Amino acid sequence: MDLTKKKISKKERDRVDHIIQALNEEYQMEYKCYLNHENPWQLLFATILSAQCTDERVNLVTKDLFQKYLSIADFANANQTELERDIYSTGFYKNKAKNIIACANRLLTQYHGVVPRELEELTQLEGVGRKTANVIRGNIYHEPSIVVDTHVKRISKRLGFTKEEDPVKIEFDLMALLPKDQWILYNIQIITLGRTICIARKPKCKECFLKDLCLFTGVLE
Fold it and tell me: Are 63 and 90 in the same domain?
């Protein structure tokens, strides 16, 4: 099955194309990662920490964390209680600490300290689901991928790109609808839109450059 094709009307295809064009014009076509990192394993652990936590908070925590733990081996050998204290403010710190230590050990023993690039291998790592795996694939290996975070889920539904609630089903809907070379950019652009204009509780519909193309415009006004 070709996931890059989806049967939609010409009118809807034109609307999708206009939305993509507007996003590219507004935010440009520049790749950007909101989690600070210097190498693949730092991004992997930062993304694990970002579950149910803001990127801003994670960046505050990892600023000191990556100065204390300088390698995958440092995390693999970390005392779990101490690591829990180090990442406490990111929430769910017990599970996150446990997963990071286990993930670090697997990276060393199974992958010789190299973060894998394949989705199937990444999702076998502790604490890594499709969202985290796609962050790595897109930002580190530049593999076309769609990351369904809270902003992508909310705005994709408002745009009428999906009716699903499950992130995996949303991911597949977007893969079928959007051009493959737009997948990574869509993640970046929609996160920016979600943080500035298409806010969860009080979207600024009147200020939005997509207001004439969006199916949601005016619902909350």
Answer: yes
